[in-house]
Structure formats: C-alpha cells, structure tokens
Input
Amino acid sequence: MEMKIEFPGNKKVDAIYNGFRISTDQPAFGGGDGTAPAPFDLFLASLGTCAGIYVLGFCQQRGLPTEGIELKQSHEFDPVRRMISKVNLEISVPPSFPEKYRDALIKSASLCAVKKHMEQPPAFNIFTSVSENAEV
Output
C-alpha cells in the first residue's frame, strides 16, 4: 500500500492512507495553528493505541470486562541526545481484574507491532523523483 502526503497550508501535513485522511499540524509555538496533533504526537499515540488493541484483544478473547482498564503512557527524555530514552506503559486494572491474568496482560501489550518495529527498525530509503503529472 502507498501513503500520499499532502500540504494543506501553513504547517499542516496530512497523510492519505487506506481511505483515511490523517491530519497533523504544529503547535502555535512552532509556527502552526495547533488544529491537529503534531506528527510526533501521532507516533507516540501509535505506541499506546497499539498496545491497547492487544490488551483489548486479550480481554475479549477471555471474556474479561474492559471497564476500568486504562493504559497510561509516559516517556523519559534524554536532554543530551534530545530524544526520548524510555517509554513507560502502565496498565491500570480495577481491583476485580483477575490477578492470574496480570502478567499475561503485560505480555500481550508487549506484542504491539509498533513496539516491535521500533526494536528492529526498518531501513529507510528516501529519494526524489520528478512527477510527469505535476501542476506548475
């Protein structure tokens, strides 16, 4: 599948993928309008939501209620490298959640495909081309 990236104005950058438009914008302090999450925010959200889908699937497969389950994601920042050095993901469960499933819930969240791709990142091939159909 191919993803198309468009520039709708100012600091906005949208991705069109699989029938969806995924909008991003920079915050006002970064010169944007703050109308959508920044691209890096979507990256961070993809980690939490990916883990969340695995937690949800684990519970659904076992008929466990998901009411009261919450994932809380935080990160630690390395000021020298100016990058995130650690992502923390806490799975908060209600007291009624069976204790025998808590470790399995962690293992399930660890199966997240986004996390696995970060652990073994793909190679990047970035290049330019000249479009024959481009408007001038």
